[in-house]
Amino acid sequence: MQTDLGRPRATSVLVSAAVTVGVSGAALLALWVALRLAGLDATRALAALWEGSVGSTYALTSSMLVRATPLIFTGLAVALAFRAGVWNIGAEGQLLAGAAVAAVVGLWWEPGLGVATLPTALLLGAAAGALWAGIAAWLRTRFGVLEVISTIMLNFIALYGVGYLVRGPLQEPTHVYPQSAPLPDLARLPAIAPGMRLHWGFVLAVLTAPALWWMLRATAMGFRIRAAGQNADAARVAGQIDTARTTQHAFLLSGALAGLAGAVELTGVTFALYENISPGYGYTAIAVALLAGLDPLGVVLAGLLFGGLEAGALAMQRDAAVPAVVVSVVEALLVLLVLAAARWRSASALLTRIAGGAPRAEEGT
Amino acid sequence: MISAAQSFLEASVRTATPLALAALGETVAERAGVINIGLEGIVLAGAFGGLVAAWGGSLTAGFAGAAIAGVAVAALFAFFVVVLRADQIITGTAINLLALGLTGAFYRGLYGATGAALSIPTTGTTAVPGLAAIPLLGPVLFDQPAPTYAVYVLAPLLWWWLYHTHSGLALRATGERPEAASVAGISARRTRWMAILLGGALGGIGGGTLVLSQAGTFAEGMSAGRGFIAIAIVVLGRWHPLGVLAAALLFGAASALQFFFQAMSWALPYQLFLALPYVLTLLVLVGVAGRVTAPAALGRN
Prior knowledge:
Chain A has 365 residues and is mostly helical.
């Protein structure tokens, strides 16, 4: 258990960046081998992966960065929760709750709200994510229900809830397709440049990271969260910290970030609510947060990496007939390699925290 | 009405079978102090392994292949958790991603990119002579595929093993007080290795059941959250094999309600029925709160 709560973070970002580059190369090599073993055209697949992510300005701005946006938001959500010792596996459900409420605001309240529609949709989307996380937080403090289990259950409930909404109250007017009507213009996040898919939500995500980093590092709230996550007993006894309350706040804030991911995805990318609006962003976010060493600034880097991988995977499926899902092999290997590296490089306090002393709930998992 | 009730109950047992297999395996692992979130990936790997082995051989080979695939994935989990002492939740999450990607790639690689579903004959049901003739419950409980009967045997067997044998006591001690257990000469590492591998075999067979007794084919991500549900079932069943069996049946029944209401042609949105088992699980978890304790060392390395 480490005690240096206030250690400088710049080095940890460098370490996580170096580790990221190293293990990314190894993971891509492993993907190449796996594709060869599966009898697929591995070289062509990796070329398509490159083309579809950073191979052109268009791929970079209209695919990779767009894809990275929800991963950064949800990655921040998971990093914050894990820092506080909360096993929030529910970013996926919180994202869906955020998207659903943002859709309600955009579709139903736009006539009354006017120019306030977009900010309201984003705010209430974040609130919906916090509320969805709040159910699990309440079940944990009131009844001792493990949040690992409850958040996973809530993910499924949110998924079927959205499925119901897009076939029921929010279904498009012709009642043919399981999706909502398109959002009015006032409910849409503007593109960064005309004709570009990249929207201002990306900038919002990138700016949220240093804000969260500063909050964790420099505020009393941030100190309480880190203390509660690293050693709940010590924080309670020696630090006079109400750890139950602190972890609850972190849980809600984590849900709000994931809810914002959903609201931004809806208002910036899809412009309509679908059942499969998220291809598992909330689950990938766990890998993003871990690769980042639970550091908000690292989350941006890891989010960009994973955004590139997923954008490239779509190109891979299109051009090389390799199912996009194989990119999760790379994501898994990244996490496993980081875990293994932590074992063999125990000198690094950052990595040790991920592998051995990861924050956990006081009642265990 | 009778036939609607009967098909509802049959569907309950059918849905419960793979969940019960996976959950019984997870019970053993959790009793040894290991929470394996990677069970979702193990179930998926078992489904794929079952298809591959059955395609080349027989249905029996299919179940063996499912178990082997589950054990292989579980071994990777055990290596990270027991040998490298990596965090259990994080490792499990990575294992799930890995299994999803590998099965997706290999399915496409082995069976071509045509997208045409590869189908194999399924086991069908085997009626137990005599017992299957009991009105209503006979066909429900005793005219099912072989894996269902395996569950009937396994649950009491695991109960007897955990509570009435020396090695079962050693396993539970490892999950409660690993330090004390090791003072008593029990190797926590070896015990956890064995528990995780057994959990992998049962989770794999659970996944294999989906392909070999139910769907007759594989689809990308076809475990569809069953591994996660099995983990919740372990909590519902209070880490007790017989409780886990009951919890799996309850979950199966909640899932099967949708068929029942469809048969009764009630005009309720089916998504609400799909969500029902998960809502019910949360409610039951609240209901058993305070009266149920996890193994004390669960999740700790």
